[in-house]
Specification:
The complex is a heterodimer of chains A (126) and B (492).
Chain A lengths: L3 H28 L3 H23 L22 H32 L4 H10 L1
Chain B lengths: L4 H22 L3 H27 L2 E4 L10 E4 L1 H20 L9 H23 L3 H20 L2 H33 L4 H9 L4 H19 L8 H7 L5 H6 L4 H14 L6 H24 L4 H22 L2 H32 L15 H15 L5 H15 L3 H26 L19 H19 L1 H15 L2
The chains are: A mainly alpha (126), B mainly alpha (492).
Chain lengths: 126, 492
């Protein structure tokens, strides 16, 4: 028999956690002054969305979605679709990070820094 | 063959983008020419598929031939057939326009830049054709990634603007993705038609309301709708000259089209919280129409002026969605198609003036019409259309939107639309006055060797824009009649 808190954690806990992760990411993007840190926070935010999708696919007592002899019931397998979708989303996030790092390298070359204050100061001088 | 056109329209520029870099290694212009060819074919196919849709009804293309909820589907009806044709034409003429910006000494840069443009166009075409919520996310991100690169090509400030836009754009993409996730968990499907059937059975209104809010936030950021517009002016000011027209003219419109799809085709007018959503959007739109125009009046940098004016235009398309009657939606769509050529054309002009004289400050534009007749003609055509003077497309689209507002009794929007148009008149007449009447500042031609106004590769896209602005104005009844049957089914 589950207590109230266990029930809550089992039902909704993961959603609260992913929401927390998402909020950390967005907060970091807004609050950090360093562009590299902003990029890392962006990644954290994307991971939150990925975890959210993956938790949608989970089932209690189910196994990986590979056909096993004797197991013909769909309830015995976790939902593979969300995993497939997130594979695409991970590729997108990889691409975004790649472009971001390339931009940061160029910004660092031109402005000599990845701190927002320095960049704004240099921009006004240029 | 024609049943494969919906897929081919998207795949051709995508292949062009993939091949461009490798082919450029063989010969400087081979990659570029392949991209031109792929885009031209894509444009031809988009026209043929639009014709087919008008005659035979919507086209469905299922990848892999699976049954509906399992396969990714491209679905072309009259509304997105028009959008696809618009994107394909803008992509083609922008690729032509980019010829003048080539750095011929460096092969890879030429090939790479065209590859990014083709990728950008392919992303937008896919976004407009797709009928699958997650597939749309992927195309949205392809478009966005290409856009970051194109903005970053615009020099030092462009790079910083691109990085900032990347952060904001990724937040937007993630919000949209979360919205899709919630919709998927509530309906168990990603196909939009299937989704709409399940949502309209009701019972999950609260969960899908959260999804809709996330989507409005995400797509609002991508399209620079009023409270989410912060990234837009700096990105549009610093982006690379050739691609500015595509980014400002087409990219920010695609999310509005997606929002239309979700609000009317997926959620439908019977959705429990529809009125509340439309009221909130209506407030955003009302403030946005005023804010964009007022900020634009103070600008002297032409690109920045156009960027603020874009916020107003986005509000006009959204206005059609907020009003929701079929006529207003049709007017919104007409404005949507027309504005791609107006805003795109005006960005071509800003780029052309920058190319010839190295300035975009409108105070320096004194009597520029003598030196640049075609550019001035396009600025005048675009400005008249933006303000809404017949026979340009802007007049008819605003007319239909206002008519929809009157039919549904939302008179406040008619008043706001007229005030906003008058504000448009202030800053566009300021530009026209500078071009035709101000004192000649004696601008120096930065490329004095070349004869004539501009290279032909710039004149052709600009002439196409002028023609289309008037052509859409003359054909407005045809276009409205074409999309009205579909919109009557989804509108209020």
């Amino acid at each position: 028999m589950m207590t109230g808190i266990e029930q809550f954690l089992a039902d909704k806990g993961i959603y609260y956690l992913t929401f927390l992760l998402l909020s950390f990411g967005v907060y970091g993007i807004i609050a950090c002054k360093n562009y590299m840190k902003k990029l890392i926070c962006m990644n954290i935010m994307q991971v939150a969305a990925i975890v959210f999708f993956l938790s949608l696919g989970q089932k209690k007592g189910a196994t990986i979605p590979v056909l096993i002899e004797g197991l013909t019931n769909a309830d015995s397998y976790i939902n593979p679709l969300t995993h497939a979708l997130m594979l695409t989303a991970i590729v997108v996030s990889l691409g975004t990070t790649g472009v971001g790092l390339a931009l940061l390298t160029r910004i660092r070359e031109k402005f000599g820094s990845v701190e927002e204050d320095d960049i704004i100061r240099r921009q006004n001088k240029l | 063959m024609i049943q494969h056109y919906p897929a081919l329209v998207v795949i051709l520029p995508l292949c062009g983008a993939a091949l461009s870099l490798a082919l450029t290694k063989i010969h400087l212009h081979l990659g570029r020419n392949v991209i031109f060819l792929s885009m031209a074919l894509s444009f031809y196919m988009s026209i043929m598929q639009l014709r087919n849709v008008v005659i035979n009804g919507p086209m469905e293309y299922r990848f892999g031939g699976y049954a509906i909820p399992y396969s990714i589907e491209f679905r072309i009806d009259t509304v997105n057939g028009l959008v696809v044709a618009m994107v394909a034409l803008m992509g083609l003429i922008t690729a032509f326009y980019c010829i003048s910006g080539e750095i011929r000494s460096e092969k890879l840069k030429v090939g790479g830049a065209y590859a990014v443009v083709a990728l950008f166009v392919a992303g937008m075409l896919g976004n407009a054709s797709s009928a699958d919520a997650f597939n749309m996310y992927v195309f949205l991100e392809i478009t966005a990634l290409a856009a970051y690169c194109l903005i970053a090509l615009g020099g030092n400030r462009g790079m910083v603007a691109a990085f900032r836009y990347m952060l904001v754009g990724t937040i937007a993409g993630t919000f949209y993705l979360l919205g899709v996730g919630i919709l998927y968990s509530a309906t168990g499907t990603l196909n939009m038609q299937d989704m709409s059937i399940i949502i309209q059975q009701g019972g999950k209104d609260e969960a899908v309301l959260v999804a809709l809010c996330l989507m409005i936030a995400g797509l609002g950021i991508k399209s620079a709708l009023f409270p989410f517009h912060g990234w837009q002016p700096s990105a549009h000011t610093h982006e690379e000259r050739g691609s500015a027209a595509l980014i400002a003219g087409v990219m920010v419109k695609i999310p509005v089209y997606m929002l239309f799809r979700f609000v009317y085709c997926v959620f439908g007018t019977n959705f429990k919280y529809m009125q509340q959503i439309l009221i909130v959007l209506g407030i955003f739109v009302g403030i946005g129409m005023m804010y964009g125009s007022i900020r634009a009046i103070g600008q002297t940098n032409m690109k920045k002026l156009l960027a603020y004016s874009s916020i107003t235009q986005t509000s006009y398309f959204m206005l059609g969605i907020v009003i929701g009657s079929p006529v207003a939606l049709a007017g919104s769509l007409l404005h949507f198609i027309g504005d791609a050529f107006i805003k795109g054309g005006l960005f071509y002009c800003a780029g052309a003036i920058k190319y010839k004289f190295g300035t975009v400050n409108i105070d320096n534009f004194g009597r520029i019409y003598k030196k640049m007749p075609v550019t001035s003609a396009l600025i005048v055509a675009g400005a008249l259309s933006m303000i809404g003077i017949p026979p340009t497309v802007g007049f008819f689209s605003k007319w239909y939107i206002a008519m929809g507002a009157i039919q549904t009794g939302k008179y406040i929007f008619v008043i706001l639309l007229i005030i906003s148009s008058l504000l448009n008149a202030i800053y566009f007449f300021k530009i026209i006055e500078k071009i035709f009447m101000s004192k000649d500042k004696g601008l120096e031609d930065v490329r004095p060797v070349k004869k004539g106004e501009l290279p032909w590769s710039m004149l052709v896209p600009m002439s196409v824009c002028i023609v289309v602005i008037f052509l859409l104005g003359f054909l407005n009844v045809k276009i409205i009649n074409m999309v009205l049957p579909l919109l009557k089914g989804v509108g209020m």
